[in-house]
Every structure is written in C-alpha cells, then in structure tokens.
Amino acid sequence: MELKIDLLKGRGKSRLRIVFGVLCILLSGAWLIVGILEKESELLFLWILQGLLFTLMGIVHLMEGLGYSLGSYFGRAFVLINSEVISLKTNIYGKGQCVNWSEINSMNYQLNKFNIQKTDNTTVSISLVELDYLSVQEVKKTIYSIAEEKNIQIT
After folding, report:
1. Do 13 and 65 touch, CB atoms closer than 8 A?
2. What is the distance between the alpha carbons of residues 56 and 78, in angstroms, rounded to a whole number?
3. Cα distances (angstroms) measured from residue 106 to each of 41, 120, 124, 144
4. CA distance 14 to 135
5. d(CA 92, CA 95)
6. What is the pLDDT of residues 27-36, one digit of tens each?
7. Cβ(80)–Cβ(6) under 8 Å?
8. Could you tell me which of 14, 30, 7, 28 has the C-alpha nearest to residue 63?
9. Is beta strand 153-154 parallel, antiparallel or unpaired with respect to 104-110?
10. Is the predicted pLDDT of residue 25 greater than 80, yes or no?
C-alpha cells in the first residue's frame, strides 16, 4: 500500500478570487492614473508604489483563482507513505520528517500525532496537525495497514 498526497495541489477555480483579482488590477490602473494626474511630485513615488502593490495583489488573486498554486514555485509540501518510508513535509518553509520502516520498533498514536520508538531507542514524533481531516484519516489508515504487514505494534 502506498499513499502520496501533494498538499500544494490547486484547489480548483474560484470565481470570487478571479473577480477580486480583476478588480484589484482595475483599481491599481485607476490609482496610477490619479497619482500621475496629481500635481505634487513628491507624492508621485508613493502613488506609483501603491499602484504596483495593488497590481501585484490582483495578479496573485487572479492566479490563485484560476487554480494555480503559487506556493509550488517556492517549495514542496507532501505526504509519502510506502513500504520503505514515512515522509511528511506539511508546508513549503518547514523541514520535512522522514522515518524508515526498518528503523521502527513500535508506534503510539495520540491525537494528530504519531510517536515512533526507533530501534536505537530514540523517539520521533510525526505531527499531523497541519493536515485536513480526510488526509489525517488516509495517513492513519495507510500507516496502520503497513505496520500490520511489518508486525509493528501501534498502541
């Protein structure tokens, strides 16, 4: 049994975010026009900067609304559980957790967390807090199934 979940997978299209993105881009254009027509030159830089920030915010919302995940350009977030390894990286900035099944002596499941006793008497904690409910259930089911195959006790 194997479980692969890409946590950065696009959530699908969102009309609200598309509309909000287009509105931000239109507002930034109007903001820039008003800033250029303003006669005070010392404030022109601030008007242009604010207009560019509105444009950037509009582009981000538009891309996310169209189903593209911007986080995937900066890193990876995934769950990989197979017969050799339990590997989990829940966000693009965090450090991943990885434990080989051959190093596991026993496991203990507590609320959204697996405490793993390794063969060298160290304990590793794999937290599932950042996963949604359905992903946690899939992870639990897969780990229980593979642990049963490998005769690893889970309490």
Report:
1. yes
2. 28
3. 70, 12, 11, 12
4. 22
5. 8
6. 999 988 888 8
7. no
8. 14
9. parallel
10. yes
